[in-house]
Design goal:
Strand order of the largest sheet of chain A: 1-6-5-4-2-3
Oligomer: heterodimer
Low-confidence stretches of chain A: none
CATH class of the largest domain in chain B: Alpha Beta
CATH architecture of chain A: 2-Layer Sandwich
Number of domains of chain A: 1
CATH topology of chain A: Double Stranded RNA Binding Domain
Radius of gyration of chain B: 28 Å
Radius of gyration of chain A: 24 Å
Helix content of chain A: 25-40%
Order of helices and strands of chain A: HEEHEHHHEEEH
Shape of chain A: elongated
Largest sheet of chain B: 5 strands, mixed
Strand content of chain A: 35-45%
Distance between the termini of chain A: 67 Å
CATH topology of the largest domain in chain B: Double Stranded RNA Binding Domain
Shape of chain B: elongated
CATH superfamily of the largest domain in chain B: Lipoprotein like domain
Structural class of chain B: alpha/beta
Order of helices and strands of chain B: HHEEEEHEEHEEHH
Number of helices of chain B: 6
Distance between the termini of chain B: 84 Å
CATH architecture of the largest domain in chain B: 2-Layer Sandwich
Number of strands of chain A: 6
CATH class of chain A: Alpha Beta
């Protein structure tokens, strides 16, 4: 009888914890908003390539290379995959024209840059049709709660609750290299609340904010450069 | 040490050589451990040296049809920056002379028809160069995350660039600055962060130097005169 009662108590505890986990999992989701502004017609062939570059001229923040890489990888796979040139390979090959202090800031600067025969030659070698400038960052705000951990001779554990909010805000400006003009801007804003309950063991329920911003932005960019 | 002496005396009167040997061995072990502890303490207290190492791409710019001599003298080849801790002790020694030579040996051959590395300023005339370039570091600053409260290592360098004729006559003298930063990572060392920030600063120097060289007023005037001859 005692064993049966213990079993039923354990089962109830397990069910309640599972429900709590599922509830928190549902809460730890991300909201992503994508805005597109088209300035010109687009289209890409299988011979054309796209290069995605991060803006790094600001003192306050710089676009993370990992985010740039994430968007590029996502655009280069799946149905209607696009040829994406790795950022560092392109920047090294174009040195010193795409460094943080020398990179063109406006599409008019690209026109002046394309007047350099060496630049045009390298661009043609890569088959670059579009340059995508990514600018943005992810910030963590609204940190709340605390978790305490203790270790003793009989074992250890943590107890508490923590939560925080991540806000990703990225903007992708698309330049058409063939006409040296800006053809559009896509912005991605993602927000998500993450939780970390700790009952003996901390259980991280992380909202994948930047990853969602990356996938949404990459999918939209893919459609955009294909003219969709 | 005094404990050991007492024990060894007692050992000598009781079990003779065996105990004495055991004590001698334990004494050796203790000394070795103490030495190791002192060495570890000294190693942790000593300033850590960062020999900056990096590779730099060749600039894609049209070459000036002149022969340039370059002299890596004092203030560049032997430049070592010392970062002090809050208590005024030497914390990091950043040596960047070799990597500066690697940088200029990559950048200058792309900017000029031919580049000659000079061992001294006196040999310039004999080597048939049109001008001699002498770079020098004036100031070096390092920003460490624990001091700046930012999540990145930062390097800022101010240079004095000098261009003289083969006979040592003045052509141009100007100041350049370079800045680089590297994001601090939980899984990386401070040495790696300093190195990456310094390499980023040198890359910044390379890009500005290669694109801005002909825009320096005195250099521009000299090039106009020289190329019209």
């Amino acid at each position: 009888m005692i064993i049966k009662a213990q079993h039923s108590m354990l089962s109830a505890w397990f069910k309640s914890m599972t429900s709590l986990g599922l509830l928190l999992l549902l809460q730890a989701c991300t909201t992503t908003t994508i805005d597109e502004f088209r300035q010109g017609a687009t289209g890409i062939t299988s011979e054309d390539s796209v290069v995605i570059l991060g803006r790094r001229q600001g003192a306050a923040y710089e676009t993370r290379a990992q985010f740039v890489e994430c968007v590029g990888e996502r655009m280069a796979r799946g149905a209607n995959a696009i040829n994406v040139i790795p950022e560092q390979q392109f920047v090294d090959a174009m040195f010193p024209w795409f460094e943080p202090r020398t990179a063109p800031l406006r599409s008019e600067d690209l026109q002046a840059l394309m007047a350099q025969p060496m630049v045009t030659e390298i661009m043609s070698g890569f088959g670059v049709r579009y340059i995508v400038w990514l600018d943005g960052q992810t910030e963590t705000t609204s940190r709340m709660g605390s978790i305490s951990c203790a270790v003793g001779p009989g074992g250890g554990g943590c107890f508490g609750f923590g939560s925080w909010e991540d806000d990703s805000s990225f903007e992708a400006r698309v330049w058409d290299v063939s006409s040296a003009t800006a053809v559009g801007t896509i912005s991605a804003d993602a927000t998500g609340q993450s939780y970390m309950p700790a009952v003996f063991v901390p259980i991280p329920l992380i909202a994948r904010v930047e990853a969602n911003a990356c996938s949404s932005l990459a999918d939209q960019l893919k459609q955009f450069v294909q003219g969709g | 040490m005094s404990n050991c002496t007492v024990t060894s005396k007692r050992a000598a009167t009781t079990n003779g050589g065996t105990m004495m040997k055991r004590c001698f061995q334990s004494g050796d072990l203790r000394r070795a451990l103490l030495s190791l502890l002192i060495l570890l303490c000294l190693a942790s207290c000593a300033a850590r040296t960062v020999n900056v190492q990096g590779s730099y791409p060749r600039p894609n710019i049209p070459a000036i049809p002149l022969v340039l001599g370059v002299y890596y003298g004092e203030g560049l080849s032997d430049f070592v920056y010392t970062e002090l801790s809050d208590r005024g002790e030497e914390e990091y020694l950043v040596s960047s002379g070799d990597t500066h030579e690697v940088l200029f040996n990559t950048v200058l051959p792309a900017m000029f028809e031919r580049v000659v590395v000079l061992d001294s300023m006196e040999e310039a005339a004999a080597r048939g160069v049109d001008a001699v370039f002498v770079p020098r570091i004036n100031e070096f600053q390092l920003g460490m995350p624990q001091k700046t409260r930012l999540d990145s290592y930062e390097v800022w360098v101010r240079y004095n660039m000098r261009l003289t004729g083969a006979d040592g006559s003045y052509i141009a003298d100007w100041v350049m600055t370079a800045y680089g930063k590297a994001t601090a990572s939980s899984f990386s060392t401070a040495e790696r962060g300093i190195n990456d920030a310094a390499v980023a600063a040198l890359r910044d120097l390379a890009s500005n130097f290669s694109l801005g060289f002909t825009g320096v007023p005195d250099v521009r005037d000299w090039l106009q005169r020289r190329l019209s001859q």
